[in-house]
Write a structure and sequence with these properties.
- By secondary structure, the protein is mainly β.
- Helix content is 12%, strand content 32%.
- It is built from seven helices and 30 strands.
- The strands form seven sheets. Strands 5-6-13-7-12-11 form a six-stranded mixed barrel.
- The radius of gyration is 23 Å and the shape is elongated.
- 47% of the residues are buried.
């Protein structure tokens, strides 16, 4: 069990048992200090150089507990990514993508139909750009040893696969041979070959596992119960993957393996997928996900930590407890709790936190009042409170905290308040609408999910 002093002091919402840890690497923590003693808890002094993205891969900042199993993750375009030498998308581009994605999720959550739903009877995934997802390596196939190794010659295969991490889909999948181009997309890792793994086996159509695919099922190879079970995943942007539903050995770490792990062996895709990944490791709530298949070992709980970076957001999502209030420079804003009644989604794919207009205007007013020493400049995309910090070495920024139901308070770090010199919050279209706690505000916190209990918590300073 991993807990924190902050969790124990803040009530039951923050006390979460976590056994599977997904830890992002490259997590520099911004330097923050205080002015006079009376202002220290209400304002943060931060060097302007610490508001700039880091370019050095500094590795893990916190070594996880030996009681859990952890997987190092990296972000595409981040300093620890294999694509770090490629220019990242601009912030304006990411903010526009953020608006489109969150509006899609909002419509789906409220029971509406998104514009690009292909078939309401099919399973669809709320994901727009796989390049924006956290990535981690997992071993697929028979064998043992370091996950970076692979079989040679006649030895059983143990192949490391870099996979995107996604909590919006239930079925894990990787590309498998035969996988001719252009039916498949080119990838950095070698394609997985089931014939070289002595423990690989196709799931049969008459089996319980095949029936459990539900809307992800795609018939049988021989149109009978003895045939091989087929799967199909359709994404909300006309992307898709299809192939054979299989079982094989999954290696999460050298000491943690799972036999007969079920996953999709993709032989064809539609649309553009990232060549940096071989497929997707799914952390959804369905019976096919990694969480469900490892629930006996990990207790159906996991956590992730978000690195400080201007890199694109990771892609995982879980419904969180509603926001109940906001504190700026030590003062709680005069916003009625009912304004937040639409709920809040804890979303590491969203970039910035979206608040009801009444709450956002109160936050903006208090923030601008505390930042009168600095010159305002024009907006950046939908961020309307931006500053010119030219000539300043240090900044004095008001402390901002989010208050959740039950009284739990999450104090944000400087980089969670300012994004490229702009207040990193935006309003929703109306009060009482579904809000989002974005990736920027989750920085330096370990976000803990107890899926079975429906609880979410935060551990500050985790990376």
């Amino acid at each position: 069990m991993i807990t924190s002093q902050e969790a124990r002091a803040s009530g039951p919402l923050f006390l979460v048992a976590v056994h599977l840890l997904l830890l992002s690497i490259s997590c520099p923590i911004a330097h923050a200090g205080g002015g006079a003693d009376g202002r220290r808890q209400h304002y943060m002094v931060v060097q302007t150089s610490h508001l700039e993205p880091k370019s050095i891969c500094s590795g893990l900042k916190v070594i996880p507990s030996s009681n859990g199993t952890w997987v190092p993750l990296h972000r595409p375009y981040g300093p620890c990514s294999s694509s770090a030498d490629k220019p990242p998308p601009s912030l304006v581009e990411m903010l526009r993508w953020d608006q489109v994605r969150t509006e899609h999720v909002r419509r789906k959550t409220m029971g509406g139909e998104a514009d690009d739903v292909l078939d309401p009877d099919e399973a669809h995934v709320e994901m727009i750009q796989v390049d924006y997802m956290l990535q981690g390596s997992f071993g697929i196939g028979s064998g043992s040893g370091d996950p970076q190794g692979s079989g040679d010659g006649d030895n059983p295969m143990f192949l490391s696969q870099t996979m995107a991490i996604d909590t919006t889909v239930d079925v894990p999948w990787i590309q498998c041979l035969p996988c001719p181009f252009p039916q498949c997309y080119p990838q950095r890792n070698a394609y997985f070959d089931p014939k070289r793994s002595s423990t690989a086996a196709a799931v049969r159509c008459g089996s319980r596992a095949c029936r459990a695919l539900g809307a992800f099922a795609n018939g049988c190879s021989n149109n009978n119960s003895a045939g091989e079970c087929q799967y199909l995943i359709k994404y909300n942007n006309d992307k898709a993957t299809a192939g054979t539903y299989m079982t094989d050995t999954l290696t999460i770490s050298p000491s943690t393996t799972f036999l007969n792990f079920r996953f999709g062996c993709s032989h064809a895709v539609q649309g553009n997928f990232s060549s940096q990944t071989s497929g997707t490791m799914s952390l959804g709530g369905g019976p096919q996900s990694l969480l469900a298949q490892t629930a006996r070992a990990f207790g159906n709980a996991f956590s992730y930590s978000v690195p400080q970076s201007r890199a694109p957001p990771a892609s995982s999502r879980s419904a969180g407890r509603p926001t109940a209030g906001i504190i700026v420079a030590g003062r709680r804003l005069n916003v009625l709790r009912v304004v937040f009644s639409g709920g809040t989604v804890m979303d590491s794919s969203s970039i910035v936190t979206q608040l009801p207009p009444t709450a956002y205007l109160a936050l903006r007013r208090a923030f601008r009042r505390s930042m009168r020493a600095y010159t305002r400049r024009g907006p950046m995309a939908n961020l309307d409170t931006c500053y010119d910090f030219g000539g300043f070495t240090n900044l004095t920024v008001p402390a901002v905290s989010l208050v959740f139901d039950g009284g739990a308070v999450v104090k944000l770090d400087p980089l969670a308040v300012l994004l490229e010199g702009c207040l990193a919050f935006t309003p929703t279209h109306t009060d009482f609408a579904l809000g989002f706690m974005g990736n920027v505000q989750q920085q330096t916190h370990e976000v803990l999910f107890d899926v079975a209990a429906g609880a979410v918590g935060f551990r500050r300073g985790a990376c």
